[in-house]
């Protein structure tokens, strides 16, 4: 009788592990053989120092199938209650236009792209972000807008920092915050000010007259709903040489006079209610706009318009060389990953609705608010605010009775002592408003009657009169067909993981599996307010606790804080925990942060934001931390040593043998070790930062743990800490963070950062399970070492570790080629586009190099295709060197080639050589939509708004 497969084996045939991994089992064997290895274990033995290897398997669950995982997650989601939210405070229900939901938010063509550092294959999202900037400018009435910040509260902190840098009231250290600014914003700004050593006064607007300040933060409309005339306040501030920062609700600006017209210097706010679900607090984009004079001080990225080599208009990230994270310890902000995907959605929401649609929505919200106000007045209740856009605050006659009715009707209100607040949003219908009035007054209502007697709620001098969204982009896509085609047209210009590998070192562009992505838009996750009552968020908390427990196990730390919503923000949060810890043991003088010269630019930027002094330590010729130099500096500075920030495996992609010793040196000199966890993909299941000797790390969930990069965000940067640091992680002033006892200041607007995307990392861990997690690391190492071996015959590999192995990435040196032939790393990057690839990380951590990280998700076929392209390009370089090709007019210097080139072919080499250099490109070609973009021109002629339509003309 033939042997029957067991039920277990049957199940395994559709397991997730093999779907997540690129190479098949037989390919893994073949690749191992090429490396002269017997097994994946053998590879780990050779590549990873023994002293850091874990001695037992991860104690996380066995891998589970996609279907099982989704079913279980659904059961958790069902424990959340989707109530009608009137809480407001910066988070509003919204209707994501379904054409945007499906074609952007749920579309890997958009969500798997990288930050648009290679503009020739990113014109789609560059245009989308430019729309976002234009929308920010129009609504705020300002001159220059950036490409999105992490949330409204951190944008407020950035505004304060800009105010401090820009105010002519130089000696002053005091920043004023109106007490009616959202409390989570006050919390985050206070945290930031404390570590910069600035003072904060939270008070009544009337107090401002008598205060000497460098800037002030106002909320428009304030938390009660009141619309203040900002003009006299701002004039008063300007008379003191102070900077006026205004947090403005983006929807209200459709109807209200813009803060820019009233003289504001910085205007910012959340763009969440433009089509991005509340998602328990994020991810959402914040917009940030300012005056042209402050353009060098603006935090984060800005998209600008430039030209390509044909003179055609092309967009790019403006002032890239002054990107904050390249300015290292001189940085004024540490923004790296931001919220590009969500900024795109908000911009598309404005495109979809246009001025007319937005005006309609804003009017409806305002009329409904006025109807509710009339009902409250009829019921004899007193309104706290006498003007409003969408928010009312009233003194309740019987809070308990209202609360009881609200709970029965599953309606969430904002409670504040004897006051109750309601904020209306676009998702509310007439039936909702009737139900709300019933809850608030106990009476039924006649909406038309109430509407008829309602008076204007916006003071006439604060009504918007200036035009907005006049650019054709906001007026051309009226039908869904046109909108769909616009979205698809932009998507088609962009290279994403849906096209090919994006081998960016340090960025870990791995599979973002569909099953991981599906849950984020489930209503039970998407439509939850971050300050919803605890009992409505049970499912979220269970999911978060499971994820925290798994991350504790994976990292070897004792505690995880979910709050930071980017890696850099995790660095900041981790350093603050270290500072607070030192304060608690009477060592608050410790303020020196050692950082190796090879560190990612966010490290020194975060250290400086945490009020620490950065001292750079050397690296040796192998790219490792120079232990002698480190030891000398640590002991010389030991009285004031606070921390070392070290990346492991190193930014050079090798496992340093001395890492344990490095940790000991720091501890012996009284410091703490901050291990940058961005390279955790080389550690999961194999080693643990907490066991190596580190005290705190951030994890980039958007790298190692499968959250997609979104074209430049969202991200999540939770931190793992040892128990002595646990009391010092961020708390939250509005909603207590579970298991966080002490009340430390917040670093993000929402208690759990960007809750909506946590199911992605949760599912990633559950579906891979203990075996799959370790195997992913092993295959990531295998892919990197396979690539390294194949490329080593053609390019010098800069650094290797023990047994000539690299970790999960490798650096190839292009400097000798440049010295000999003039072909630069940029030429290589652009030429790779002709071959259908996104370039690896360029010039980080070493100028003139490529850092290549294939990840475990790329197949052997794709690796071979990349290797072939790199070898071909090497041969092309030979033709330049030998003089067969002209030194300037050659396929490398002219790359990337476009369809426009073919229409006007004038090159000394063939079209075939230019655009079909490989079989793969003949089988399916990805066309860069513009020729090489001119960076210098763009910075000299800074244009950061949508250009006129005529100028879009392409030849
Ligand atoms: C990506 C990265 C960071 C910053 O993370 P963000 O989420 O972009 O803020 C820090 N360090 C290293 C080594 C990184 O690769």
Key features of this structure:
single chain; 955 residues; alpha/beta; Aspartate Aminotransferase, domain 2; 2 domains; seven-stranded mixed β-sheet; 32 helices; 38% helix; 11% strand; globular; binds pyridoxal-5'-phosphate
Terminal Cα separation, in Å? Answer: 72 Å
Which oligomeric state applies? single chain
- Assigned CATH superfamily of the largest domain: Type I PLP-dependent aspartate aminotransferase-like (Major domain)
Under CATH, the topology of the largest domain can be stated as Aspartate Aminotransferase, domain 2
Structural class: alpha/beta
Give the radius of gyration. 28 Å
Q: Describe the main β-sheet briefly.
A: 7 strands, mixed
Compounds present? pyridoxal-5'-phosphate
Overall geometric form: globular
CATH C-level class of the largest domain: Alpha Beta
What fraction of residues sit in β-strands? 5-15%
Average of the residue pLDDT scores:
95
Give the neighbour order of strands across the main sheet: 2-8-7-6-5-3-4
Name the poorly predicted regions.
Answer: none
Instruction: Name the helicity range.
Output: 25-40%
CATH architecture title of the largest domain: 3-Layer(aba) Sandwich
Tally the structural domains: 2
Number of strands: 25
| Number of H- or I-type helical stretches | 32
